[in-house]
Amino acid sequence: MGNVSTKIDATERLLNLVIALLGTRRGYSKSHLRKNVNGYAGPAAEEDKADAAFERMFERDKKTLLELGIPITHNGLPGTDSGEQALYRIDPDDYRVPAIRLDESAMALVSIAANLWSGATLGGAAASALRKISARAGTPWYEDETTSQSRIRTAEPAFEPLWSALRTHHRVSFDYRSAGSTDSTARTVEPWGLGSKYGQWYLAAFDVDKGAERSYRLSRITSDVLVHTREAFERPAGFGMAPVLERLGTETPATARIAVPEGTAHWLRNLDGTTTDPDSPWHKPGWEVLSVSYREAELMADDVAAMGTRALVVDPPELRDAVADSLHRAVTAAAEDVRGLDWGTPLPGGPGKKNDTRDRLVRLLSMVPYLVANPGVEEAEVLEEFGISGAQWEKDRDTLTVTGLPGYLHGDLMDVTTDSGQVFIRDAETLASPLRLTQEEACSVLVGLKALTALPGTRAAQSLRHAIDSVAAVAGEDSWLADVVELELVSGAELDTIAALQLAIAGSRACAITYLVRNRDELSERIVEPCRLFSIDSAWYVRAWCRKAGGLRSFRLANIKELTDAGAQEHAQSSQAWSSQAQSNPAQSVQAPWRPNSGVYDPGTEDMHVRVRADAATARRLQPAYNAELFDVGDGATGLQFLVGDTAMLAPLMARLGGRAQVVAPTAVREAAAAWLAESAASYDAVGEIVGVVPRLGG
Q1: pLDDT of 4 over the 80 cut
Q2: pLDDT bracket for residue 592 (50, 70, 90)
Q3: pLDDT at residue 47, rounded to an integer
Q4: How far apart are CA 567 and CA 551, in angstroms?
Q5: CB 292 within 8 A of CB 258
Q6: Which of 621, 632, 564, 625 is nearest to 598 (CA)?
Q7: Torsions phi, psi of 508, nearest 5?
Q8: Alpha-carbon separation of residue 660 from 55, 184, 382, 503, 617 (angstroms)
Q9: Exposed site from 194, 322, 514, 570, fewest CB < 10 Å?
Q10: Could you tell me if 362 and 340 are in contact, meaning their C-beta atoms sit under 8 angstroms apart?
Q11: What's the Cα-to-Cα distance from 535 to each of 351, 434, 542, 555, 599, rounded to whole Å?
């Protein structure tokens, strides 16, 4: 039964085409596909136009499916040019994920690698890959509750277009602000690789105008990224992103002299290479000058700006000016009128990837084998598994119900029903095997697995190597992407601390730590009972019961100055008990193991709700750290609403952001932050404050 309507959704048409070509052993001619596959047939009165439209549509569809790893083959006879001589089909062996053997240990590592991307641009692809690999391996996945977890964010607006251009070998153009500069220049480059280090994403590319390889930090891209879809290039053979990341930060460090009150600035004093400079010409009673080594001037300027009046850069002038500029931009932002902002439009918490026909088709092709393998699955579980809303599920369910084998009669169409909240699918044998891994899926898991090799205690090396080799074999020719995308999850300085905490977790041991509460510049002695290690980008934390606070807290490893064994854990809930309770009684959220994507900040009963306005990219970076709710507040800005226990941390945060955000409410907190910023900026303007230094005048 041919469909006489041309108004069929593109996803439905592509799904019908896949089912038709998978369901035939001999193949179908073009005319047969046009007349019998829903979405192609056109009115007979416009036959000539319909023929041309079909040819264009069919060629586009073949290209789309090929890009998704679904090749359409044909057995056209040599020397013929008639479309009727070519029979088209999809070979099931080309379509489905190859068989893969993974034991539970290796499967757990694949799960950890895929979950690296939770909430990031590649999160959906990683989850889909995990689902497919598990189905073909016949091994369920789970997260080992004693394994270190990591999450990588891709909040930069430039990431998605650069990722697309990297995969498709297309040139890109964008405006870029170099380090230490306030102006942007236009760049046209050929993307070679992407990598994450220091919590920042970097692009390795060939700069067309300069004729040389260059690295670009994505946070310094100041415009939209234009992808030149008609300009392809060849990446150098053997290029890898790992050596590029290794070179970052290896240049000779710079040295700054920073004046601080005596007995303060603990984080500066604990940086490698920091010494006291007694010979400095700068002097002020009760202050001293520290000689501090640093590599990234921009990051150091952010850190020093967050210290406010408790630090003054003596030299170099470039760093001093960068700190002063950041503070003055924050002062200007704090003075902006934020009254009357509309907080009525909430935004999703993660950086969503744009949905298009391809994305939806991949989801439906993944959903069918999932429903086949899980008859009677709860409807709510389907929504969670695929990250879709109720409205999206209804649309997907309706599409599945009207697609099937040509003829589209009873028994040809798939039948999706919901009974008492449980979902069943019938007549779906053609799509019962999971589709082979897409480029994004293969890359997400392989990159994650390779990143895990740097973590101490990440299972047995043999299991990790087996997982990498097995997934690479399944990925086939798309495994090259894992060489040009690289994650650095941990620096050498934190490896010993991670290893010590992992032993404490495994042995249910408590730890005595000296911990720097950075926003108060205070060293605190604590006994903690660690239960979980995690990282967000390159920042590592330990989740632990703090005996001093009498509750669960997250401690940043970089701020742990001393760590020693403190005997057996005394709190009733060991990490193993938390795990078992979470499975038997999920409602007891306080007792359940903490998940990194729930945020770093631990809200207390007396915490205060605050509101902050920021540009969209900055808001996306802040959101996971504070469990913030996001709102569209107009003019392209994003509002954040979250809880804080000490509102004094907001002013240093605004200083660090350098005008990209401002406190909105409560009014008293906004005014206090503005006063702190003004006083801090004034400390760099004071004439004669710094001996031998020409002061900055004005704002």
Answers
A1: no
A2: very low
A3: 59
A4: 18
A5: yes
A6: 625
A7: 55, 50
A8: 50, 17, 38, 41, 9
A9: 570
A10: no
A11: 18, 32, 9, 11, 11
Helix segments in 282-438, DSSP class H: 297-305, 317-334, 357-373, 379-386, 390-401
- Residues with Cβ within 8 Å of residue 226, at least 6 apart in sequence: 161, 172, 173, 174
Q: Would you state the structure tokens that stand for residue 205, as one six-digit string? A: 């590319």
**Residue pointed to by tokens 């300027």:** 301
Cβ within 8 Å of residue 530, ≥6 positions away = 501, 504, 505, 511, 542, 543, 544, 575
Q: Pick the range with the lowest mean pLDDT from 4-8, 497-501, 534-538, 558-562.
A: 4-8
Strands (E), 2-93: 73-74, 88-89
Domains parsed from the chain with CATH numbers? 10-95 (1.10.10), 159-247 (2.30.30), 492-584 (2.30.30), 603-685 (3.30.70)
**Structure pTM?**
0.77
The two three-digit tokens of residue 658, written as one number: 């350098």
Q: Calculate the dihedral angle through the C-alpha atoms of 490, 496, 502, 504, rounding to the nearest 10 degrees.
A: -150
Q: How far apart are CA 302 and CA 314, in angstroms?
A: 16
* 3-state helix/strand/coil string of 488-555: CCCCHHHHHHHHHHHHHHHCCEEEEEEEEEHHHCEEEEEEEEEEEEEEECCEEEEEEEECCCCEEEEE
- 84 falls in which pLDDT band (50, 70, 90)? low
Query: Which residues are within 8 A (CB) of 405 and not within 5 positions of it... i.e. 6 or more apart?
Result: 19, 20, 23, 412, 413, 430
Two structure tokens written together for 604: 């207390």
In terms of average pLDDT, the best of 34-48, 470-484, 507-521, 582-596 is: 507-521
% pLDDT > 70, the chain: 86
CB neighbour list of residue 8: distance below 8 Å, 6 or more residues apart: 38, 39
Residue for token pair 């932002």: 333
CB 238 within 8 A of CB 495: no
- Note the pLDDT of residue 175: 95
State both tokens at 116. 């690296």
Lowest-pLDDT choice from 26-30, 132-136, 416-420: 132-136
> Per-residue pLDDT tens for 228-256?
999 899 999 889 999 999 888 777 889 99
Cβ-contact 103, 463 below 8 angstroms: yes
When the pLDDT of each residue in the chain is averaged and rounded to a whole number, the result is 83
Lowest mean pLDDT segment, chosen from 83-92, 244-253, 349-358, 557-566: 349-358
SS3 at position 679: helix
Given a contact cutoff of 8 angstroms between Cβ atoms, the answer to whether 105 and 143 are in contact is: no
N-terminal to C-terminal alpha carbon distance within the chain: 75
**What does residue 463 show for φ and ψ, rounded to 5 degrees?**
-65, -40
Residue 133 and residue 366 in contact, taking contact as beta carbons nearer than 8 Å: no
Range among 38-47, 88-97, 167-176, 282-291 rated most confident: 167-176
Pairing relationship of beta strands 522-536 and 149-151 according to DSSP bridges? parallel
Answer yes or no: is pLDDT of 62 > 60: yes
Element (H or E) spanning 571, and its range? none
Q: What pairing do the DSSP bridges indicate for beta strands 485-487 and 184-197?
A: parallel
Per-residue pLDDT tens digits for 635-667 = 889 999 999 888 999 999 999 999 999 999 999
